[in-house]
Amino acid sequence: MSIERKRILYLISVTARVVLGAVFVYAGFIKLIDPKAFAVFISRYDIVPQILLVPVAIGLPALEFLAGLALIMNIRGSLTVIFSLLFLFVSVLGYGILNNLNVDCGCFSEEDIKGFNSLRIAFYRDLIMIAMASYIYAYRRFLRQGKVSRIFRLKNKYQEE
After folding, report:
1. C-alpha span between 103 and 119 (Å, rounded)
2. What is the pLDDT, as a whole number, of residue 142?
């Protein structure tokens, strides 16, 4: 793999990491400013028991905020937390879509697009963020260490035989 190609892949990885981290910092911060409004969003999904609404309405945005900061600073484990949160969010949004819930996403603030389409848009947006997180993981696991070139060499070796 050429040095130029490695540099481009590295820049894509850093950009994806910073953008993804910034989205989580922003989303967590907006919800931490008004946890009552976020608790209302959560309650509309009817998934979290009433007694856990306040801890979730404070804890989840705090986790988002801290995980986003940690990802921007490239702290070990932050990508796993972000990926887990995205999986949780996609699951909840999928639940809302499958049950035809006419609720706001609650992902950022009340300025989110209203209603059922909000859930679909947020669902697809979260899938894109999962793809970004997957790229960062793949870069760290394979591309940065040059394992991709070894994988392609093995693939070509077996194709020739």
Report:
1. 8
2. 78
pTM: 0.82
Per-residue burial over 1-11, b = 16 or more CB atoms within 10 Å of its CB, e = otherwise: eeeeeeeebee
Tens-digit pLDDT profile for residues 20-47: 999 999 999 999 998 998 898 888 888 8
Q: Which residues contact 151 (CB under 8 A, 6 or more apart)?
A: 142
d(CA 126, CA 82): 11
In the predicted model, is pLDDT for residue 155 greater than 70? no
Tokens for 31, please give them: 């919800």
